[in-house]
Amino acid sequence: MPARSSLLGDIDVDVTLDAPIGAMTWYGIGGRADMLVSPHHTDALVTLLQRCRDEDMPVRVLGGGANLLVDDAGVDGVVVRLDHEWFRDLQFNASGDVTAAQVSAGVDLFRLVQDLGRRGLAGLEMMAGIPGTVGGAVRMNAGGSWGQFSDRLDTITAVDFNGQFRTWAADDLAFRYRDSNLPPCIVTSVVLSLQEDDPITVRDRIKRIFQHKRASQPMADHSAGCAFRNPIEASTQRHISAGRLIDEAGLKGHSIGGAMVSDQHANFIVAQPGASASDIRRLIDDVRTLVFQRHGIELESEVVVWQRGDRP
Ligand code: EPU
Question: Which of 126, 139, 145, 232 is the best mutation target for the ligand 1 pocket, counting ligand atoms within 8 Å of the beta carbon and taking the most?
Answer without folding.
Answer: 145
